[in-house]
Amino acid sequence: MKKSITRVMEIAVTTALLFIGCKDSASPQYDGYVDGFLVSVNQPPGSSGGQGVETRTVEVESAGSGKTGGGSRVVGVAVDIDAGTVADRPFLYWTTSSPGVKFEDSTSAKTSFIMPPNDVKVTANFDPTFPVTVLGGTANNGRYLPNATVNITADTTDGRPFGRWTTASNGVTFADSANVSTSFTMPANSVTVTAVFTGSYPVIVSSIGTGATGGGNYYVGETVNIYAGTGTGRPFEKWTTASNGVIFADSSNESTSFIMPANEVTVTAVFKELYWVTVSSIGSGATNSGQWLVGQTVPINAGTLPIPHKFEKWTSNKGVTFADSGSASTTFVMPASDVTVTAVFWDWDILTDARDNKEYKTATIGGKTWMAENLNYTPSSGNFWCCYDLPDYCNAYGKLYDWETAKTACMAGWHLPSLEEWRQLVEAAGGTDGCGGGFSSNITGEGKACKTLRATSGWVLSVINGSDGSFSNIGTDNFGFSALPGGRRYLDGEFHEATIDKGWGGYWWTASEYSSGYAYSIGMRYDNGIFEDSHDISYFYGFSVRCVKDE
C-alpha cells in the first residue's frame, strides 16, 4: 500500500505539470494513463464522467458469505475487496483475467487494487477440500476434495475388538461399516466418523435429582446423553467431572452430552445451594421463613406486634448483615448456611401503685420514665371524676382530676410532670413540625410527636357531621406512650370529647402554673396534633394525669 500511495503522488505531480503546460484554452487536450491512472487535462464537455472523472464496473466472484467490493468504481481510485468466508474452507488467493489489475496482496481475503480504465472481474479462490475427523481411528490425511475416496482405519492397538463405524455427517456412506478398515466417498462438507468398539466403559451419573439418566456402559466414541433430573427444589447449576477426555456439549444445561473416552467416567450434576431461613418473631404474619439460594436477597418482616411489644432490632445466629437492622421490614444476603434471624422486641415495664395495687405500663423516652397509661387512682380527698360519671370510662382512660388534686395524685417516687418535662418528651418523640391543625386539616406529621406518642387505636378519624372521615391521624405509638382521648370535664360539670371505644380529645395537666387560678395543660386532638394550652384553663377543669419518675 505504501508503494501505491507513493505512485499516486507521482501521478498527481505529473498531472499538475501537464495541467500547467496546457492551461491555455487553445492548447491541445491531453488524455492518457500513467500506471493505470487516467490523466485528463482540459477535457472537453460531454466526455465520459465529466470534469475528468471516469467510472468502470467491478464484479467480485466469491462463494464466501459477506463478500464486498463489487459495483461502479472511479478509474484511478483504490478498490477494497473482501472475499467473505466459507465454512471449513480457508481462503487461498485472488485471481483475475482483467487487464490493469494488480492486487496489493493476492493471498489476503481482504485486499485492494487501483481501478484501471476497464471493467474488472476478480475471483476469490478457497481451499476446495473439506476436513475429515476420525474418532477412534486414522485417515490418510486431514482434508479431501469432494468425490475423493477416503480410507479410514480403526485404532485397535489397545486390544479392543472393533464393532462398527458411525457418523452423523451428511453424504457419508461406508463401503463396509463393520470392517476395521473401510472407505467412503468424500461429500462437499466436513465429515466426522467414529470407530465404535465392542469393548465398553461405564458411565456413572451422580445427581440428587429425581429421574437422572445417562448411566451405563458405552463404547468409545459413542455420544453419551445425560440428564440431571428434577424435584430437588434446587435449580440446576452445572455438570462437572474429574474423568479424562470428557468435554460436555453444554455444561450449564441439565440435559447435555459428551463423546465417550477410552476410560471410565463419572459426571456430577451440581445444583445451586439452598439453605433454610428461620424467622423468629412474636409478630403475627412474620415472613420469610423457608429455603433460599446462596447470594439471594432475603426480605424479612417482623409481622404485626402484639401490645405492649415494640420492635427494636434484628439479630442473627450467623452474623448476617441486615440492610437496616432497626427496621421491622428489611433484607439480607443469604449466606452458605442455615440462618435464624430473630426480631427483638421491647415491652413496657410494669409499675405497681402500692396504694391500691393497680398496675401501669411505663415507657422510657428521652431519658425519663413515664407512665404509659393515665392515672386511675382514687385519692382520699380532692376533686376527681370518671368521664360521664361512668366507671367504664375510668377503666379505659383513667380518672379526670382538677389541678390541685392532680399535683399530689402520683405515687411515691413519681410526680406530675412540669411543662418543661412535657416539652422535652415532645421533642424526644420527634417534635411537632408537620402536625397540622384545624377541623379540615389532615395531620401528616410522620415521625412527629403527634403520631409517635399517639395510641394506634381509640381515636376517631373525624367528627364532622357526626361521622368518621378520612383524616390520616392514626398514631404509630413508636415509644409506647399510648396517648388516648380521655376527654375532659368543663367548669359547668359537662363532659366532652370521649366515648367508651374511641374519642377525639385527650388533655393532661402539667405541674406548671400559668397565673393565679390557671395552669398549663397539654392537649392532643384528632384534628390538630399536640399542643400546649393555658388560656382559661382553670384549676377546676377535669383533665387526665400522667406521672413521671423522680430522678
Describe the overall structure.
Helices cover 8% and strands 36% of the residues. With 551 residues, the protein is mainly β. The chain folds into five domains: 2-126, no CATH class; 130-197, no CATH class; 200-271, no CATH class; 274-345, no CATH class; 350-549, no CATH class. The strands form 14 sheets. Strands 4-3-8-6 form a four-stranded mixed β-sheet, with no helix packed on it. Strands 11-9-15-13 form a four-stranded mixed β-sheet, with no helix packed on it. The N and C termini lie far apart (96 Å).
Keywords:
551 residues; four-stranded mixed beta sheet; mainly beta; disordered N terminus; 5 domains
Write down the Rg: 48 Å
What number of domains?
Answer: 5
Number of helices: 5
Mean pLDDT: 83
The secondary structure category is mainly beta
What does this entry show, briefly?
With 551 residues, the chain is mainly beta.
Question: Which helices and strands appear, and what pairs or packs with what?
Answer:
Layout: H1 2-21, E1 30-34, E2 37-41, E3 55-61, E4 71-74, E5 78-82, E6 91-96, E7 110-114, E8 120-126, E9 130-135, E10 137-139, E11 143-144, E12 149-154, E13 162-167, E14 181-185, E15 191-197, E16 200-206, E17 216-219, E18 223-227, E19 236-241, E20 255-259, E21 265-271, E22 274-280, E23 290-293, E24 297-301, E25 310-316, E26 329-333, E27 339-346, E28 349-352, E29 359-365, E30 368-371, E31 384-385, H2 391-397, E32 400-401, H3 403-407, E33 414-415, H4 419-428, H5 449-452, E34 488-489, E35 495-496, E36 505-515, E37 518-525, E38 529-533, E39 548-549
Parallel strand pairs: 3-8, 9-15, 16-21, 22-27
Antiparallel strand pairs: 1-2, 3-4, 5-7, 6-8, 9-11, 10-12, 12-14, 13-15, 16-17, 18-20, 19-21, 22-23, 24-26, 25-27, 28-29, 29-30, 31-32, 33-39, 34-35, 36-37, 37-38
